[in-house]
Amino acid sequence: MNKSFLAALLGLFAVVGLTTPGFSNNTVTVASWYQCCHTTANGEAFNPDGLTAAHKTLPFGTQVRVTNLANNRTVTVRINDRGPFVHGRGLDLSRGAARAIGCISSGTCRVSMDIL
Question: 62 near 2, Cβ under 8 Å?
Fold first, then answer.
């Protein structure tokens, strides 16, 4: 196999491997929050005051910067659960994360999400 072809192929794999399928940075969605006590989808105990979130497809452990578009407050969360399973919502924040961006009283808020 040609060395330059192999180098190009390896470069392509490196670039493709750095992206998350079906997700682009600066995605705008509606976030809700939850505080129920359970085991998360990745097997850890749910901490309602932790800075974590549920997402349908992002890999567990992914760090995401979440910005409340109404007040520009941000928080960095770690994906450790699956959800939300309500039409039109893209992220379920722990109570602690929702509190950090001022989303508690409204229950939902429009946010932007950036993978870190």
Answer: no
Number of domains present in the structure of the chain: 1
Segments forming the whole domain that contains residue 98: 24-115
What is the band of 22 on the pLDDT scale with cuts at 50, 70, 90?
low
**Cα–Cα distance for residue pair 6/9, rounded to 1 Å:** 5
What is the rounded CA–CA span in Å between residue 100 and residue 74? 7
CA 109 vs CA 32, 48, 50, 64: distances in Å: 7, 18, 19, 16
Q: Which amino acid is at 43?
A: G
CATH of the domain at 50: 2.40.40.10
What is the model's pLDDT at position 6?
43
Angle (CA) 28 81 15, round 5°:
60
